[in-house]
Amino acid sequence: MEYSKTLIFSLVICVFIINGIESITVQIQATPSEGILGQTSLQLKCSYTTVTEYVTGVNIQTKINGQFKNIATFNTPSVPFNATLTTDGNYLTNRVTLTNPTSSSTDSALIQFSQIACEDENEYMCEVAYAGSGGSTSASSGVETITVKGNPELPDSVPSYVPSAGIEEGNNVVFTCTGNVGKPQGKFRWVRYRYDSNDDTQETPYESETTTAVQMPGTCTFNGTSQLTLKMEQLDNNAVVRCQVVYQDVPQEKLYHQTQGINVYYSVRNVQVTKFPPIHHLLKEQDP
Fold first, then answer.
1. SUPFAM superfamilies this protein is in (predicted)?
2. What is the CATH classification number for the domain harbouring 102?
3. Burial level of 4, CB count in 10 A (0-12/13-18/19+)?
4. Is 126 part of a structural domain of the chain?
5. What is the pLDDT of residues 110-163, one digit of tens each?
6. What are phi and psi of 118, to 5 degrees?
7. Are 148 and 37 spatial neighbours (Cβ–Cβ below 8 Å)?
């Protein structure tokens, strides 16, 4: 007996067997396809539809060391066993719920995530084992990708600055800000607030200062560091300097720390001397 199989890859792969025109459709989908680190719900669903084939089992796979390996095994109603994680899937323990298909012809196997971790960012496939006119075989889905994001946090502390005291007009002061800027990597922006000669507040943003980031050990989020150098002026006396997180190009309204008013010493200007009372001649006090 001669068989002809056509594999169409995207998220769907169809297998057509000319003898009897048997077909099976398999697809995998993550909803949503982006997970947020922590207590976040995400569902990975392997669906299949058959005409005459009898499905005997389902495996969901992920790429490990460059190869797709089974992480969860599911059974159809004809096999009365619970779905289980494989050895390669043990990293999912206590973070997922597995649900078996309820039909051997049209149904789905589910991995329901209750907590997202960095290692969940990966490629996934689904393999369906079935019995057809040619005996036992399997069909696979295309590849689905899950990406993982991590929300940024407040900067670690109020921006530090050097020198921290005795600042004089004309001094260069270096401000430093550090903290978790999330995943994908965010950045810090700086804003200086000071009063002009009319006691109106001036706001000066500094958007182009570099944020250097490194991935934090044990996580996939980034710890950022940014510095701002300002040459202090008279108007910087009592100025406030703010460090704010920008994540995915959006300034995060509540994620900032700022300094207290900065003392800046400056020379006296426009000195005027007056005499009171305006007497042109002063009498020398007589000795008693």
1. Immunoglobulin
2. 2.60.40.10
3. exposed
4. yes
5. 999 999 999 999 999 999 999 877 788 899 999 999 999 999 999 999 999 999
6. -55, -40
7. yes
Encoding tokens for residue 126?
């689904």
The overall pTM is greater than 0.85: no
Separation CA 244–CA 169 (nearest Å): 26
Phi, then psi, of 114 in degrees rounded to 5: -110, -15
Residue 71 to residue 87: CA distance in whole angstroms:
7
Q: What is the DSSP letter of 216?
A: P
Distance CA 208, CA 202 (A): 19
Domain final residue pick, 149, 168, 188: 149
Q: How many domains does the chain have?
A: 2
- Which tokens hold the place of 160? 């530090």
272: which 2 tokens? 């005027």
Distance of alpha carbon 248 from alpha carbon 181, whole angstroms:
10
Q: Give the SS3 label for residue 87.
A: helix
Largest CA distance in the chain: 142
Yes or no: say if 55 and 101 are a contact pair by the CB < 8 Å rule: yes
Q: What is the pLDDT of residues 207-242, one digit of tens each?
A: 999 999 999 887 899 999 999 999 999 999 999 999
Q: Is 115 within the bounds of a domain?
A: yes
In order of 36, 178, 236, 285, the CA distances from 256 in angstroms are 21, 11, 20, 65
DSSP notation for 114-165 = SSB-GGG-EEEEEEEEEEETTEEEEEE---EEEEEEB-----SSSPEEES-S
Tally helices (H) and strands (E) across the chain.
0, 20
